[in-house]
Design brief:
heterotrimer, A mainly alpha, B mainly alpha, C alpha/beta, A: mainly alpha, 3% strand, globular, C: alpha/beta, Rossmann fold, 2 domains, six-stranded mixed β-sheet, five-stranded antiparallel β-sheet, 14 helices, 15 strands
């Protein structure tokens, strides 16, 4: 029985990480209908930059910020230089972002090599915490993951619901043409959103590198998990991403604990099932 | 049919080239072209981009391996005239099933649901040993005998692949002119109107996916004979992306663009490592791909047509850029 | 438009890809230069370059030309790489590949090209040479089971472990490593009550960590690269401290140089490997010095991959020297030489092959220790000489146990 609770806790903390990784993807997907296949590469890029900064300065928080900023910049460049030029052509954007992810992955391999990195965490995040109720030790950094995810989730929700820019973005999700007709600089808004998405991805990369580890291949892993999370939850909705992350995180951990052989299949079967029954995702609105 | 003019040089090419070019470049391009054709067909006529075509090819490929000769001691060998139809029927059935599951999804969602199916199948083959022999898969899957050699030898396999490619193109052209094919295009153009007329859209969608399963399955069988093996790697994310790349660089306006995309892709894949520092060839592949996507929005096939049109002094089609 | 023209001319250029001139001997090399294994694959190439440099770039008056092609760890890619080397570049000798499934694929492929000799790089699947071997596929090195020789006995007799749980990736190489460990450990009287097979590339092991039975004496961890780092981190964070036993690729430089908290847990942990970075034999020291000199930006010391690709290339060059660079008989004489070849390998022992063309090797039991400056290294604590592929067992008995799998061997 203890195992069940521990696995549930693992599922929750993994869901937190998945949510952090997927929130940026969801934001971009929701507003711009862009399936950014380079999302995983941005995440890994942020993670590497964060690692380098922490390695040089020893300041973890600075590393998280640097990773976020670097990925935000890269994201903005991708939108300005490539994806923005083919706005509305989803398939070409998908393909172009695949090309970008191939290029980025190779550049990162060039710079950081093929080894595995772990971001050094400050002492308050390192080691284990005793959970007396369950009688086990538990990784402190994973407990904090939930705090990070909650604050990012709430922050994002406030930003989208309560600020003026958030209102414009929401309007964009509903009716891009109207927004354009009203004279909003939609291209600049797109770049901003892409930079924000990149920043969330980059920060998630540093945090993933602190809680787990980062290496070539991490990009694809988080791209797939973000895809699944966003699709299952419903696109463009913060709540949807959270629900999707919860479902997938729990399913993955229960799978790993109770049916390890087919654990990896389960996640994707859930996605197929959800999409077959509700094509727009659990909390997504049907497209017109 | 002016396309038959293209066939004459294609039939003569093997006389000029060594085995490497015939098998590793041309045959491989034809096989990938057939699989990509099944994607282009769905994209062009049903308006759905499917990431599950490699999965369909894999279903047929695994069936041929399971019901044919292999060196892993799994499955039971059946004569070719039984195993081939089984393989194609299975890939058609798998196609129909995917069509049924994805019948309500369009646009990005259709991409994602088919991607999910493809990835789930990949993980399943990797973990299942009873049917798919897990990570390692099947090896020693030899093409049937022919005279002294077998159909897997470079020259026979090239002509077999060429023949299958032609048949598939002809089949696609025939299908889209048939009443069913017209219904499929109606689903693409105006699903709402179709429903209003009381015509259910499920049947044409499922039929189109099943038909694409037949095409992809043919390519999958050729691929297994070509590689003499099939494993979880053959249906992984790498091949899924490759086939998508091929379809899009070839252009989705016309199904035969798939073959143009395939030859470009294969050359790039093989020779990129010679052109650039060997550690950085993926960079070159990525950059060329990006350049093609940006410079040729409708694919290389369309770009070539545009160029020919310009050379003749009359633009056949207005550029949409 | 311009960028497209560049692409087209680039492709046209490559069509003229030039075969080597007649006096050169082309040696094809297949390694993994992309994705997660890229760093390892690059080190394999360094090994080949060292062997060629040792020979002065020439053999019997012919220049050696290396053609390097990358695979991506999949058998399909290894097969295309080999076909390209054979049919386009005219290579009659291939050194490679790196990983197990690729090795099996090239073993199969070698039957279709009887005039080509394939000399394994570092792939360690057992059946590549054990069951249904091929006349022209050679492995101057061991398989994954041989690389664990000595560890099972050491764990039981010296460390006194009776019960060991296993955490390993779910594919053929770890199956083989587990076999190598369990063969000795079980016959010494130990038991393995639980095995956990996890998917490759899994990052989150937390649920596996808590499923491991509490009453085991040690955990045998056969995970590679980032998987090993992730598992060890999470195991330590969960507050467990059961001792670890490592596989051949578990405790590598990444793990050792990591400053994660699990490092203390690793001190004293045994592992099995054919390549010890700090080995103090004169041969290895010289090899290691040459490596550092040739590749200042290489790894800290030659890895298992540099070591094995080096041996493969060295065997090829020695064989070529013996036949005067003449492969015109389809390499028959060359292969005859290889079959009887004996040479001193970088760790000092004598390398030779059995009738299945698989290496009879020296293997090391190593342990992790803390250097005076506080960094971690590995040192050899035992050398097991002349380990053959059946681990000293009778061939019939060994084969009768069947191929490795999730459930074979078993001693709960």
């Amino acid at each position: 029985m203890t195992l069940f609770f521990v696995v549930t806790l693992n599922g929750l903390t993994l869901a937190a990480l998945y949510f952090l990784a997927a929130s940026g993807f969801s934001l971009i997907f929701g507003l711009m209908r862009t399936v950014n296949m380079a999302h995983g590469a941005l995440l890994l890029f942020g993670g590497y930059v964060g690692w380098s900064v922490v390695d040089a300065t020893g300041l973890w928080a600075l590393g998280v910020m640097a990773g976020g900023l670097a990925a935000a910049l890269a994201g903005a460049l991708v939108q300005i230089g490539v994806l923005g030029r083919m706005q509305g052509d989803e398939l070409r954007q998908t393909l172009a972002s695949i090309a970008i992810s191939i290029i980025l992955a190779d550049l990162m391999l060039w710079i950081w090599g093929g080894t595995t990195y772990q971001v050094r965490t400050p002492s308050w995040l390192t080691g284990g915490t005793r959970i007396e109720v369950l009688g086990i030790g538990y990784a402190t950094v994973r407990l904090y993951l939930m705090v990070f995810a909650l604050s990012v989730g709430v922050g994002l929700w406030l930003f989208i619901q309560k600020t003026r820019i958030g209102a414009v973005i929401r309007a964009g999700v509903d009716d891009q043409d109207m927004l354009r007709a009203l004279g909003y600089p939609i291209n600049r808004i797109f770049v901003l959103v892409f930079a924000m998405g990149g920043m969330l991805a980059g920060m998630a990369g540093v945090i993933a590198g602190s809680a787990l580890s980062i290496a070539p291949g991490t990009d694809l892993q988080f791209l797939l998990s973000s895809l699944v999370v966003v699709i299952v939850g419903g696109m463009g909705s913060v709540g949807g991403a959270a629900l999707g992350a919860l479902l997938i995180g729990l399913a993955e951990q229960y799978g790993l604990a109770y049916a390890p052989t087919y654990a990896a299949v389960v996640t994707f079967v859930i996605m197929v099932f959800v999409l077959a029954v509700r094509p727009q995702g659990l909390l997504g609105r049907a497209e017109a | 049919m002016r396309y038959f003019l293209v066939l004459i040089p294609l039939a003569l090419l093997p006389l000029l080239l060594n085995d490497f070019w015939v098998s590793q470049v041309l045959t491989r391009a034809l096989i990938l072209g057939v699989i990509a054709l099944s994607l282009s067909f769905l994209a062009t006529y049903l308006g759905v981009v499917s990431f599950a075509q490699v999965t369909l090819a894999g279903v047929a490929g695994y069936a041929v391996a399971y019901f044919g000769p292999n060196t892993v001691g799994l499955g039971f060998p059946l004569p070719l005239y039984v195993s081939l139809p089984i393989a194609l029927l299975l890939s058609m059935a798998a196609g129909a099933l995917i069509g049924l599951v994805a019948r309500r999804s369009r646009g990005i969602y259709a991409i994602m649901i088919t991607l999910a199916i493809g990835v789930a199948f990949f993980y399943f083959t990797r973990q299942n040993y009873a049917l798919f022999n897990g990570f390692t898969g099947f090896s020693g899957v030899i093409a049937p005998k022919m005279g002294e050699g077998n159909w897997g030898d470079p020259m026979p396999l090239y002509f077999l692949a060429l023949g299958v490619s032609v048949i598939c193109v002809v089949l696609v052209n025939g299908f889209v002119r048939s009443p069913l094919g017209l219904a499929v295009q109606a689903v693409r153009d105006a699903p709402g109107r179709l429903l209003a007329l009381g015509i259910p859209t499920t049947y044409p969608i499922v039929a189109a996916f099943a038909f694409s399963g037949l095409i992809a399955g043919s390519g999958g069988i050729l691929n297994v004979w070509f590689q003499e093996r099939v494993s979880s790697f053959s249906v992984g994310i790498g091949p899924i992306i490759d086939v998508l790349i091929i379809s899009v660089i070839g252009g989705l306006r016309h199904p035969t663009g798939a073959f143009v995309g395939a030859i470009v892709y294969v050359m790039l894949d093989i020779f990129a490592i010679d052109l650039i520092d060997r550690d950085r060839f993926n960079l070159l592949i990525g950059i060329v791909l990006l350049a093609i996507v940006m410079a040729a929005p409708n694919g290389l096939h369309q770009l070539a047509i545009d160029w020919v049109g310009k050379l003749r002094g009359r633009a056949e089609q207005p550029r949409t850029n | 438009m311009k960028s497209l023209k560049i692409a087209v001319s680039a492709i046209a250029l490559s069509a003229a890809a030039f075969p080597a001139s007649a006096d050169d001997i082309t040696i094809g090399v297949i390694s993994i230069l992309e994705g997660a294994f890229a760093a390892l694959g690059q080190d394999g190439i360094r090994g080949v370059e060292m062997a060629v440099a040792d020979a002065g770039g020439q053999v019997a008056g012919n220049n050696i030309e290396l053609v390097v092609v990358s695979s991506d760890a999949s058998p399909d890619s290894a097969v295309s790489a080999a076909r390209r080397l054979i049919e386009q570049d005219g290579a009659q000798i291939i050194v490679g590949p790196l990983s197990g499934s690729e090795g099996l694929a090239l073993r199969d492929l070698s039957r279709s090209y009887p005039d080509v000799t394939i000399i394994n790089g570092s792939s360690g699947a057992q059946d590549t040479t054990l069951r249904d071997p091929s006349e022209n596929f050679f492995r101057f090195g061991g398989d994954g089971a041989q690389w664990m020789a000595g560890v099972g006995t050491y764990a039981h007799d010296t460390m006194g472990y009776e019960k060991v749980a296993i955490v390993a990736e779910d594919y053929s190489f770890p199956y083989t490593q587990v076999l190598g460990f369990m063969t000795e450990f079980c016959s010494a009287g130990g038991t393995v009550p639980a095995k956990f097979w996890t998917p490759i590339g899994n990052a989150d092991y937390s649920s596996v960590v808590y499923s491991i039975p509490q009453d085991v004496d040690a955990i045998f961890v056969a995970l590679g690269g980032s998987d090993a780092v992730s598992f060890l981190t999470q195991y330590q964070q969960a507050g467990f401290n059961t001792p670890i036993i490592g596989g051949s690729i578990t405790i590598d430089q990444t793990v050792l140089s990591s400053d994660a908290a699990f490092r203390d847990m690793l001190i004293g942990a045994p592992a099995g490997t054919p390549t010890v970075s700090d080995y103090d034999s004169a041969e290895w020291q010289a090899f290691s010095a040459t490596y550092s000199e040739m590749f200042p930006d290489g790894l800290g010391a030659p890895s298992i991959f540099a070591h094995h690709y080096y041996m493969g290339a060295q065997a090829a060059l020695l064989g070529l020297e013996a036949v005067g660079g003449d492969l015109s008989d389809g390499g028959k004489a060359f292969r005859a030489v290889l079959n009887d070849l004996e040479f001193t390998q970088p760790t000092g022992g004598t390398m030779r092959i059995d009738e299945n063309r698989n290496g009879i090797v020296d293997n090391f039991v190593i342990e992790v220790f803390e250097r005076e400056d506080g960094s971690l290294g590995t040192r050899a604590i035992e050398v097991v000489k002349d380990v053959n592929q059946t681990l000293g067992q009778d061939v019939e008995t060994f084969l009768a146990a069947g191929p490795v799998s999730r459930d074979n061997p078993s001693c709960p």
